Amino acid sequence: MLDPQFIERNKQQLLEERQRLLEDIMVQKQTLKGEVDVDVEEADPDIIEREKSATLIEALESKLADVEHALKMIEAGQYGICERCGAEIPQERLEVKPEATLCIRCQAEVERLLRRGQNPQRGRWHFPVA
Ligand SMILES: [Zn+2]
């Protein structure tokens, strides 16, 4: 079992991370919106920048979803337990990656499925969180 103090520390880290991500997303979205006002007749030299912004927003939002999910797991008292196989996630892993809700083995499996273009149906193995 994880030390409650350790969980509390990770919770604080996750809350800070969430704040940072929300701010980053806001900035990127403003950049994206601000650059859209380009005359369509003209060649748009910023198109690559905009695409970069859009990709970045996607990555940030995906990370934000992980962080928020980990916070829900903490609230539900399920933090530190792999959502897929129920194994305990080692504390060292959570120190490096506080938003982790899968053990290393399941994480690797999910990434393998995603690389193959398969949906690992993440929602299916989530513990019911109120
Ligand atoms: Zn697992």
Task: Please provide a written account of the structure.
- This protein has 130 residues and is mostly helical.
- It has a single domain, classed as Four Helix Bundle (Hemerythrin (Met), subunit A), CATH 1.20.120.
- 63% of the residues lie in helices and 0% in strands.
- The protein is built from 5 helices and no strands.
- It has helices at residues 4-34, 47-75, 91-96, 104-115, 122-125.
- The longest helix has 31 residues, at 4-34.
- The two termini are 22 Å apart.
- The mean pLDDT is 86.
- The site of zinc ion has 8 residues, from helix 4.
- Residues 82, 84-85, 87, 102-103, 105-106 line the site of zinc ion.
| Proportion of strand residues | under 5%
- Uncertain runs with pLDDT below 50, 5 residues or more? none
Distance between the termini: 22 Å
How many strands? 0
Heterogens: zinc ion
Q: What's the CATH topology name?
A: Four Helix Bundle (Hemerythrin (Met), subunit A)
SS class: mainly alpha
Amount of helix? 55-70%
**Which H/E pattern describes the elements?**
HHHHH
Shape: flat
Radius of gyration: 18 Å
Q: Look at the structure and give the mean pLDDT.
A: 86
| Main beta-sheet annotation | none
- Report the top-level CATH class: Mainly Alpha
In short:
The protein has five helices and no strands. It is mainly α.
What would the keywords be for this entry?
130 residues, mainly alpha, Four Helix Bundle (Hemerythrin (Met), subunit A), 5 helices, 0% strand, flat, binds zinc ion
Layout: helices, strands, pairs:
Elements: H1 4-34, H2 47-75, H3 91-96, H4 104-115, H5 122-125
Bound molecules: zinc ion.
